[in-house]
């Protein structure tokens, strides 16, 4: 009985004592386990830290070892790829591209936009613009105010043309040029949209001209006043003349080939834009430099020669406000024409090629009140002269000179502006031209207006008996000491095809012949066909050869003369060559 479970009680008693001890501030088994776990965690962290430090030191030692790229071990033409730690071929860039070492790639440099012309256009769009700059590539696009432009053409790496889109923004907007690759080029606030004002102009005539400018065009419209400014493609026109409220005449400036905009600005108003109203062509400009002769009768009919440049077949000529007739374009530098009826005074002469602007020379020709001959009566008389005759016509002025075959008539009396009476001079048998010349004006000619016959002499007019002059000679006689008048052969001359030829005493006679008077003149063509005609005046000597139109002619002018420096009569011939 004494051995029944005494130890159990003892154990239980010890547990109670332990509990008593814990209750007094000591640690039990669980507490020590917790403390141990914490210590183990700290030790594990320390070990991990040591491992990380060791790895770091190992990595630093490894990175300090040489690599192919750092010491240049990649061969020439290769590049070290850090992703694969190998040398790969170096990228070869095209012309104009930039090589990027960090990525072994090529990049395209961005374009640069410098300017745009014109810098304004209508809000409805449709303005053709030219953008200049650098680095433009084929396929580039253009945006204006964020809207793609149309008809974009890369003319070169420095020029792009395009057509503006529409916009509602009435202020300067940006232009963006984007190559197929790379960043864009920005032209800040470079283009301004403007509203379309009231129509000022309706047409430009003609609608095309030389890119070299310098030509006259007519602009039709309304409300034109002095001070109006006109520009073609942004370049100011010159010689702007307001012909009337509906018509302007201006001289074109130089321009780029192709269509261009015409701007018209009235004083104090916005510019009016006439889109693509004029086109520049690759043709020389027309220029009128001179007109000969300088004057002609108000009734017209004067054959003129116009010298200049740029004349083309089909050109028309205006003298004043009327068209000339019988226009012949002899060459690119010469035109012949016949003047129309015109007002008295100086007028402008213009030449216009087909569909091209006109060239003008202001105050180039003068209309004068020249005489005309409608008839003579009688129309026949003896070669000895002395026939009393009446000339009818218009424009006869006091002091007018009438000649028959170049010989001045006698007893000329201007009865009124339409009638002259006179006595015929001596002449050769056959028809002769009758001419009337007012001083300083063109000569009126009636070809074959009078015919000399071999009939009896008319009754001589009473004269006083001649008296004998000292020395035994009678008045009007030639002193015996004078030499005989000789045959002359002046040098040959030439003139342009279709141009008249005028010869005076200095052309016909040497200086030794003085006081010369022509007594007859003839012309014989040597090239066949129409050889023209000759009119002449006896004193002072003058021969006018009227050229046929549009053909080369060769011929010989012959004449007879008398002079105060020689006895009797002499003759002369002048070979005249007409060519362009």
Description:
With about 575 residues, this protein is mainly beta. The chain folds into five domains: about 80 residues, Immunoglobulins (Immunoglobulin-like, Sandwich), CATH 2.60.40; about 80 residues, Immunoglobulin-like, CATH 2.60.40.10; about 80 residues, Immunoglobulins (Immunoglobulin-like, Sandwich), CATH 2.60.40; about 80 residues, Immunoglobulin-like (Sandwich), CATH 2.60.40.10; about 90 residues, Immunoglobulin-like (Sandwich), CATH 2.60.40. It contains three helices and 47 strands. The strands form twelve sheets. Strands 6-13-12-8-9 form a five-stranded mixed beta sheet, with no helix packed on it. Strands 15-22-21-17-18 form a five-stranded mixed beta sheet, with no helix packed on it. It is elongated, with a radius of gyration of 54 Å. The N and C termini lie far apart (about 170 Å). The N terminus is likely disordered.
Radius of gyration, in Å, reads 54 Å
Shape verdict: elongated
Widest sheet: strand ordering: 6-13-12-8-9
**Domains counted in the coordinates: how many?**
5
Low-confidence stretches: 1-25, 61-66, 459-479
Could you name the CATH topology of the largest domain?
Answer: Immunoglobulin-like
- The overall pLDDT average reads 81
Distance between the termini: 172 Å
- The CATH architecture assignment of the largest domain turns out to be Sandwich
Structural class: mainly beta
The counted number of beta strands is 47
The share of residues in extended strands comes to over 45%
Largest sheet composition = 5 strands, mixed
Please bin the fraction of helical residues.
Answer: under 10%
Oligomer: single chain
Q: What is the C-level CATH assignment of the largest domain?
A: Mainly Beta
Counting DSSP H or I runs of 4 or more residues, the number of helices is 3
